[in-house]
Fold:
Amino acid sequence: MALALIIIVFFGTFLLAAVAVVVASFVQDRFSAAPAVIDGDVEESGAELPGLLREESLSSITIWQALLRRLDLIDSLKQRMDEADLQWSVGRVTLSMLLLGGSFFALVQDSSLLPPGSGIAAFVLGAWLPYWFIETKRQQRIQKFEAQFPDALESLARMMRAGHPLSSAFEVLGSEVPAPLGTEFRRMAEERRLGAPLDQVMENFISRVKVDEVRLFVAATLLQARAGGRLTEVLERLAETLRENAALRGEVRALSAQGKMTGTVLTLLPLGIAIMLYLTATEFISVLIYHPHGKYLIWAGIACVVTGHLVIQRLVKVKV
Structure:
């Protein structure tokens, strides 16, 4: 009964807050709908500012946006979302983290089977889930980018050998190469078309895609622009080096797969043994379940198994 009451109160408060936000947003839109007069000219309120002049909004809720601008971790979260190519606002992500954390906390708060402190652990787990999703999407995008980059460098070298300038080659690759690499080349071509210098375009490229291969490409391009030389040969050799590096990473990944599988088996083995004992010798394992201190032993065992799994995964992870 207490658990149901907590859930009802929590979701009722959330719904009331959501209704208040919708009403405040509606009132704000009505007041901002009137045209503003500037130097005798009527300015249309619905006209949007150009993309280079528009200030980036962290959240549609004014109070929450003001609070987010005071936090230093927001820049890191925004950078992660940009690298994952997720068109989300920081306010939406942070509010979803608080919502999931509060939901998990409410679900386990009144459970008698959990040890003390489980509510805090559940809140941390629920709040971590959106960040885990963003980090997963980021890693998937980086892997696709690394797989596309060598072929794109060879295509870039061939186009430059045929007489295309660097900006024109960026535009052609942006239209022909699929995402995510094609999107980055289109951004670079648009920045060059708007008059941004090559150094700034390359720095923006590095800030959006934090990959070692990109740093090598940017260093070679800027060095050629300043000192001269044949950039096509450098790009071809760089593409060949990146392919060899990708092959080496594949071999290391195959060799470490056995260690990862071993860690997974050792992690699932205690759960399998517990299920077998429950089916074959229920009275033997029921002592652990129904004893007053049994739940502490169970959760201590789960914590040890999870810690061992993380240690094994860390040991078999090899960076190339």
